[in-house]
Please model this.
Amino acid sequence: MQDANKQKVNLLLNKVRNFKELSIVIIIMVLVALISIKSPIFLTTSNIRTTAIGLSCNGIIAIGMTIALISGGFDLSVGSIMGLSAVLTVVFTSNGINVWLASLAAVVICSGVGAVNGFLIGKVGLNAFITTLGVQQITRGAVFVLTQGSSIGLPGDSGVAAFKKIGQDSIAGIPIIVMIFIVMVIIGDFLVKKSSAAMKVFYIGSNEKATILSGINTKLVKTNVYILTAFLSAIAGILTASRFGVATSNTGEGVEMTVISAAVIGGASLSGGKGTILGTVLGVIMLSIINNALVLFNVDVNWQSLISGVILILAIVVDHISQKRKYKS
Model:
């Protein structure tokens, strides 16, 4: 009997040790405890709800960014693609197109932008940083042209009212936008852990040359990765338009840095071949908690940007150190 109990305890301890995201969970718990002591507003239902809604769109994009990082690349154009999707949805709807068709058109166009990224990086072999930076500038320029540097709102017909419910309403007290995020996380986590397509992405990120020799079409896989990141960014843009009812010239600005930080904090490596959706989601939650605390403590916006930059650098340093240890071992 005692041996059986010992085996159960050892099994539980092994599970805890193998839970890679445990350190992030502990950090989040400590942050929540400390912030709630300083601010009685922090753990109120309204603040938790607002924070959850706010992190949902970033979290959806972060799923795609994690897969891009696992493949050994990354995508700096996700924020501008998100903005382009929101703007296209509003512009098409304002010009008499059904809002649902407008949303679908926005997703198709933005996925096409991802296909351009994928073609240039996967098939042509261009550098991911330069390529996605250039596409970022092009798509952000398109957003400014379409909005004239301002904001544009959705018209007030009945179809649009139903569309807005996705970003503004709740079911059983849970915001619909948060439900969509949770469903996407569950699907993304399952596919990354179980699908053969995801395994190919891990192989490419770990050793692309060996993956090519094994007969895997790495060019096609990498192209699909960037189509996926653009698709998820487009979904986030549509949800943003639904939530606010407007699209602005700066929608999605800076999102790429936030989701890269979240993914690296969550255990993804900038060198590729490593990462989990759960870890990234915890990274998104952690960053959202920190940003929420800075707002509650009335920290100047400029300091918020500085702190976000410091967190990103620290995440990169930790990733660099872990990679050096891996190579030494």
